[in-house]
Amino acid sequence: MSFNSKDYNLLISFFIDQVATKVADRLKSTILQDLEGQIASSTGGQKLLIDTKELADQLSVSPSTIRKLRDQGMPTVFIGDAVRFEPEAVKLFINENFTNE
What we know:
Elements: H1 5-42, H2 52-59, H3 63-71, E1 77-79, E2 82-84, H4 87-97
Antiparallel strand pairs: 1-2
């Protein structure tokens, strides 16, 4: 079996494409990890948004209480049909609307 220059060029092109794909995948992965790290460090390691169960756990109340607070105007974020909460906005809402008396 003999190879001509066209065969070598095709083989080299194939390997270059394979290497470029792997390099691009690693670069994308590295960039995503770096962005996630930057977001985590800028938020003190806290999530930007939390769901109803996480908020209920943090406030030591039931999920139904969270739904009632939403009805009273507690700020929410919708991502599609998913309801999420920004912890800082929730803290502000609670501080403005409820007292310890």
